[in-house]
Sequence to fold (322 residues):
Amino acid sequence: MPSHTSVTGEVAEFAADVRDGLGRSGRKELLSKYLYDAVGSALFEVISLLPEYGVTRADERLLRIHANEIVAMLPLPVSVAELGSGTGRKTRWLLQALCRRQPTSYFPIEISRTALAACRRQLSDIDSINIVGFEREYLEGLAEVAAGRNPNRRILVLFLGSTIGNFDRPAGTLFLREVRRILQPGDALLLGTDLEKPLHQLIEAYDDPLGITAAFNRNLLARINRELDGDFDLHGFDHVVRYDRTERRIEMHLRARRTQTVTIAKADLTVTLLEGETIWTESSHKYSAEEPSHMAEEAGFRTVAQWIDREWPFAENLWIAE
Ligand code: AVJ
Fold:
């Protein structure tokens, strides 16, 4: 099996999604998964270093401190599939602890080719690890991993970093049900969830004073210019962050500073944005500490353990498929 398999019709799919999101008459929207091209992935790496953005550090801290404890609760032997591995830095601790107990196959599933390559470089030095990357969407990649599973091994799915928060609540539960459907009883899921925290802290985390998150957000338009032959004026948009108290989520938007008409050749689209009109680019839902257990039940898992970071409220949730 090739370690990196390329996705076909990538540009056509991006074009169709952009057309769909910007061509509509109501609220305009772009899918947050498109934030992660090479530039976006690199900017996210910087975001994760910012003092205002504690998510990644909390996640990594929990995985580092509790690695042995987590491994002790897993059904062994186990293979590991990670949804959205990124560069794999925070996964190292768990994989090391696991590889001390058993030779381990690790299947990072990642749509960003550069992140996947970085992940392989980052983790290939671990003793008795076997890394096979899948350049795929999450469920597609996981289904492939499951189709090729060793019948004598369980699967541990890692879904870290609170990426689940990009789904709204009903869609998140649906997604977790899909994950469950691909797994077998006794398989495990380790889910990272960012928890509710004071408003000013959340706003700062997504609207940092250096403007890195603003660049990360605007890069989505830059990517459309680069890959779909668009002519967005990047100076014409403000990075806007708001917290929706009802939905309990941070939202990122791009707001037109003045009325402007944009042409995106490869999406066969010309669209006029009025002054003040916004494009919704991402939601990050925040959870109560109890919420993940309910999500587990709804999706067909039972909660085995939860670890919460004290410095930056964030929870690691270990579930077993029923
Ligand atoms: C990688 C999806 C977890 O939602 O916090 C960071 C992405 N967006 N800053 C998040 C992100 C703006 C991040 N996730």
In short: The CA atoms of residues 138 and 146 lie 12 Å apart. The chain has eleven helices and 13 strands.
